[in-house]
Amino acid sequence: MHRYFELGGWTVPQPAHPVHRGKVRGWRHGQYFDGPYVAAYGKAGGKATTEEIQQAKRIDWSADHFNLREALPPAYTHWIAVAFRAHTEQEVAA
How far apart are alpha carbons 60 and 62 in whole angstroms? Predict the structure, then answer.
C-alpha cells in the first residue's frame, strides 16, 4: 500500500518497499490477471475481499469493506510513532 504522509515539518525515512513478485489480481485494460497480490479498492473485478484486506493489513477489528480499504495498517502508524518519538527526543535534547 503506497501512501504519503504530511508530518508537520519533520521527516521520517521511508521504509524499504519489497519487490513485487507477481501480478495484482484483477482486471486491467480488459484482461484478467491472477496473482498473489490484491487491490484494496473497489469491490468488483477481482478486487480484494473483506477477509483479504483484513489479512493484508493485519486488521481484525473491522469487517466493513469500505472502512478497511481506507484504514491505515497498524504497521504504518507504529513506524511513524517510533520516528516521531525519536524526533521529539532529539528536540528535547538540543
Answer: 6
* Whole-number Å distance between alpha carbons of 80 and 15: 10
Amino acid at 54: Q
- Residue 28: left (phi > 0), alpha (psi -120 to 50), or beta? beta
Who's near 76: CB < 8 A, 6+ residues apart? 1, 3
C-alpha cell at 2: 503506497
For CA atoms 94, 84, 20, 27, the dihedral sign is negative
Q: If the chain, 94 residues long, is cut into consecutive pieces of 10 residues, what is the mean pLDDT of each piece?
A: 80 84 88 88 83 93 92 90 89 79
Unique residue bearing C-alpha cell 493489513: 57
- The predicted model scores a pTM of 0.75
For the chain, what is the radius of gyration of the CA atoms?
17
Compute the Cα dihedral for 70, 87, 13, 15 and give only its sign.
Answer: negative
